[in-house]
Amino acid sequence: MDRLIALDPTVVVPGHGEVADVSLLRDIRQYLEFVRAEAMSHKNAGADVAAAAEAISAQARKRWAGWENPEWIDFAVRVCYG
Predict the structure, then answer these.
(1) Residues 6+ apart with CB under 8 A from 49
(2) How many Cα neighbours within 13 Å face the side chain of 63?
(3) Backbone angles phi, psi at 12, to 5 degrees
(4) C-alpha torsion sign, points 76, 64, 61, 48
(5) What is the distance in angstroms between the CA of the first residue and the CA of the last residue of the chain?
(6) Which of 17, 47, 53, 57 is the Cys-Cys partner for 42 at CB 3.0 to 4.6 Å?
(7) What's the predicted TM-score (pTM) here?
(8) H-helix segments, the chain
(9) How confident is residue 44, by pLDDT bands cut at 50, 70 and 90?
(10) Burial of residue 11 (number of CB atoms within 10 Å: 0-12, 13-18, 19+)
């Protein structure tokens, strides 16, 4: 992701969603870093994956409220737990 951001593209065509600029890549990087950090925090605290996914999903849905397909947040948490 950092390498793509360093290219500073004026047009980013994601696999889904609207065509955007480099800010989309930055947002996605922040999202992935957030999910990974929160998942590891919950896991290290002994939370089961379902509870972690529910808590992290609620936070992420507020932070990235306009994003499509929020159901993928739970999947991302589960991947981080794995």
Answers:
(1) 43, 77, 78, 81
(2) 14
(3) -120, 125
(4) positive
(5) 21
(6) 47
(7) 0.88
(8) 2-6, 22-44, 49-63, 72-81
(9) very high
(10) exposed
Q: Is 8 exposed, middle or buried (0-12, 13-18, 19+ CB in 10 A)?
A: exposed
55-76 pLDDT tens trace: 999 999 999 998 888 889 999 9
Q: Which residue is it, tokens 């290219």?
A: 7
CA-CA distance, 51 to 78, in Å (whole number)? 11
Task: Provide the token pair at 41.
Answer: 């925090």
Count of all residues that appear for the chain in the document? 82
